[in-house]
Amino acid sequence: MAEPITIARPYAEAVFKLASEQQALARWSEMLALACAVAEHPHVRVLLGNPLVTRKRLADLFLGICGEGLTAEARNFILVLIDNGRLALLPQIRELYEELRRQQEGVLEVEIESAYELDEAQKAELVQWLKAKYRREVSARVRVEPELIGGVRIHVGDEVLDASVRGKLQAMAAALAA
Fold it and tell me: Which residue among 82, 92, 98, 150 is least packed, with the fewest CB closer than 10 Å?
């Protein structure tokens, strides 16, 4: 059986192509966020796999909740997902869409792990450093990881920049063991 992300990819690529043609990448991000919020609501999730709920009823309910937050094209997209039994894939579709959007806009997604909470000035300084290093716009998420002891560890794609105390201790232990 195929992984959900594999099944979601063609849908995300189709939405991205449509959004690009319409020059409405941000608008589609908003609409996908709304649709995801509705699809992930516990009351709606119960209905997604329920064989007693017809596709028409699910579509009416889902689109009714979304209201005017969706354009005609977005409503049609939701109907396609419902017809194909893929509405539960909306979170993966949104994730892949946002990844394509970041690539298109040249935004580098990074995750910063810090031993302690960073204030806005510290986060801004790190983001500026990353912008200069990679010569791209940077979107950063920050997580607190106390086991780092001190410092930060930055994930940029599959690259890890480890400036944590824990990382330095591990490097010293490896050097001493060699």
Answer: 150
